[in-house]
Design goal:
The chain is mostly beta strands. It contains 2 helices and 48 strands. The strands form 12 sheets. Strands 41, 43, 44, 46, 47 and 48 form a 6-stranded mixed beta sheet that branches. The chain has a 5-stranded mixed beta sheet with strand order 18-24-23-20-21, with no helix packed on it.
């Protein structure tokens, strides 16, 4: 056992000596284990020693291939420089350092890649709104491309991405691309196309190289909505000036070019401004002028025809009155101050239909300016509304008469329709209770749309204007609102009316019950019980005599009941009931009949005169009451609703 311990101690001592010796001499490298180098760059590997004053160095590759690098030794340091880095430098390099009898080695792995430039964005044309376009993203001279990932974005939206995972069969620089096709819209203006390329250059993807290219979207819109405005008119007189302005929409804003169309169809360029002004125009300036809006992706044309006329004034169109549907109207076309009128031709058209044509072939007996005219009568219809009356005058002023000078005037027809189909809608009804509200709405058809006028018919037949609104509203109606109301639809060519009778129903009121000559009479006197109701039409009057045994309905005439030779039993309570469909009202009166002090019959001349007079007065009073009621009120009485009498 002690022998073994001595042996172990000896071995341990030798190992300690060897370890101490190795720690005294060792190698350091920069970088320590791995170098990532881009093709074309300059890269240096540094190998240095510690613990040896005069080491010797050597470099080699693991597979003993040429170094393709330059070695520089500087004391305890050796530098391996690759300039430029190429595919031949993709090796594991070994640095060997020798110090006396000791030799040490250290390995540095050199990995190469190529990712020298940002991606390139290419378009196969201009970005035109509404037309598809292809975007191509290129990544040039990339290695190793099997670790390349590409994305194409529009704004924040990823349109396409791709990872190039195919096997590499050779070491070479490759240009990789990614394409996507899309259709630009107006909303893409100002957005950015982005091409992003990522190169994962180690297994763990811990080192990531990324390059990005961007391109702002410049959208184009081909010229459209090209418009020409002419001031003062496209029809001009000799010596006049005209200004024509052209506009066209597009992106970028189109340039404007003016030309005149020649007889052979070619265009004669006139101006590159949006506004073209022609002054002191002559007949030969007549023709078709062309405006052209042009930008990088297209163009659009618009034409306008200018006519330079020789007459001093345009013809004049006159109508004998407003055109009314179904009613004849005369139209006259006048050509003022024309010479020579023997070569004048006038044509009158309605829309594209020729109504009448006339040539003035009479001989000229003097030189003077004449006013010539053409007249005809036609019956307008509703279908003529919107059509145009055209008066066209042609003056053949050369010998061959194939180049007439021409003027024309137009007038758009508006056919009027007299008001008709006037109707009134009453809500809730034309018969309402006093205090209610009523709406009367009037409608009338015509062209132009009739104006509405509400009136009330007075007793003498005259109309009292009330309102010009379509709806006439009466709030909290009264009996005096009853009557005939008239709605009139009125326009320039006529009127139409509609009447409605409004009846305001009123409950009986102001009932009066009287005894004539008095409520207190003597036995044998004549007394009249009279019931009247205020100015309420269609009222039933019922007279009753009240009694404990039951009421007795009296046969009254026009609300009056006559008691001749009153008896004591005629005394008592008399009641009048006035009622209609709306309501009723009661009144009562007490009649007192007194006995005579001396029942002995006697005769005197004075009594005879009084008797005769009373026999005449009483009927007269009854007649007065009757006619007064007839004049002021209307009503009726009822014998248990069976017998009715107008009051």
């Amino acid at each position: 056992m002690p022998g073994k311990m001595v042996l172990i101690f000896g071995v341990s001592k030798i190992l300690w000596i060897m370890t101490a010796a190795s720690q005294a001499f060792y190698i350091e490298t920069v970088p320590e284990f791995r170098s990532l180098a881009q093709i074309g760059d300059s890269v240096s590997l540094i190998c240095s020693t510690v613990g040896c004053a005069s080491p010797s160095f050597s470099w080699r590759t693991q597979i003993d291939s040429p170094l393709h690098a330059k070695v520089t030794n500087e004391g305890t340091k050796s530098i391996l420089t690759m300039d430029p880095v190429s595919f031949e430098n993709e090796h594991s390099y070994l640095c060997t350092a020798t110090c006396g009898s000791e030799k040490l080695e250290k390995e540095i792995q050199v990995e190469i890649y190529s990712f020298p430039r940002d991606p390139e964005i290419h378009l196969n044309g201009l970005l035109e709104v509404g037309k598809s376009i292809t975007v191509r993203c290129l990544v040039p001279d990339v290695y190793p491309f099997d670790r390349l990932e590409m994305h194409i974005l529009k704004g924040d939206y990823v349109m396409k991405n791709h990872e190039f995972l195919e096997d590499m069969d050779r070491k070479s620089l490759e240009t990789k691309s990614l394409e996507v096709t899309f259709t630009p819209v107006i909303g893409d203006i100002g957005k950015v196309l982005l091409c992003r390329a990522k190169l994962h250059i180690d297994e763990a993807d811990s080192v990531l190289k990324e390059r990005v290219a961007t391109k702002e979207l410049q959208l184009y819109i081909s010229p459209k909505n090209t418009i020409i405005s002419v001031n003062p008119s496209t029809k001009l007189q000799e010596g006049d000036s005209v200004t024509m302005t052209c506009s066209s929409e597009g992106l970028p804003v189109p340039e404007i070019f003016w030309s005149k169309k020649l007889d052979n169809g070619n265009l004669q360029r006139l101006s590159g401004n949006a506004t073209l002004t022609l002054i002191a125009m002559r007949m030969e300036d007549s023709g078709i002028y062309v405006c052209e809006g042009v930008n990088q992706i297209g163009k659009e044309k618009e034409e306008v025809e200018l006519i330079v006329q020789a007459f001093p004034r345009d013809p004049e169109i006159e109508l004998s009155g407003l055109p009314v549907s179904g009613s004849p109207v005369s139209v006259t076309c006048k050509v003022p101050s024309v010479y020579p009128f023997d070569r004048l031709e006038i044509e009158l058209l309605k829309g594209e239909t020729v109504l009448k044509n006339k040539e003035f072939l009479e001989e000229l007996d003097r030189k003077s300016l004449e006013t010539k005219s053409l007249e005809m009568t036609f019956i307008p219809t509703m279908e003529d509304t919107g059509k145009v009356l055209v008066c066209q005058a042609k003056l053949h002023i050369d010998e061959m008469e194939f180049e007439p000078k021409q003027r024309q005037s137009t007038q758009r027809l508006f056919v009027n329709v007299a008001p008709r189909d006037t109707a009134v809608l009453v809500n809730p009804s034309s018969i309402v209770v006093e205090g209610s509200s009523v709406n009367m709405t009037c409608s009338s058809y015509g062209l132009p749309a009739p104006k509405i006028l509400w009136s009330r018919q007075l007793n003498n037949g005259d109309l009292q204007p009330l309102s010009e609104n379509t709806t006439l509203t009466l709030i909290s109606t009264k009996m005096e609102d009853s009557g005939i109301y008239v709605c009139e639809g009125i326009n320039q060519v006529g009127k139409s009316r509609k009447e409605v009778q409004l009846v305001i129903q009123v409950a009986p009121k102001e009932i009066q019950l009287t005894a004539f000559p008095s409520k207190s009479v003597k036995e044998g006197d004549t007394v009249i019980i009279s019931c009247t109701c205020g100015n309420v039409p269609e009222t039933w009057i019922i007279l009753k005599k009240k009694a404990e045994s039951g009421d007795t309905v009296l046969k009254s005439i026009d609300g009056a009941y006559t008691i001749r030779k009153a008896q004591l039993q005629d005394a008592g309570v008399y009641e009048c009931e006035s009622k209609n469909e709306v309501g009723s009202q009661l009144r009562s009166i007490t009649l007192d009949v007194k006995g005579r002090e001396n029942s002995k019959d006697y005769f005197s001349p004075e009594l005879l005169v009084l008797y005769c007079a009373s026999s005449l007065i009483i009927p007269a009073i009854g007649m007065i009451i009757y006619f007064a009621r007839k004049a002021n009120m209307k009503g009726s009485y009822s014998l248990v609703e069976a017998q009715k009498s107008k009051v």
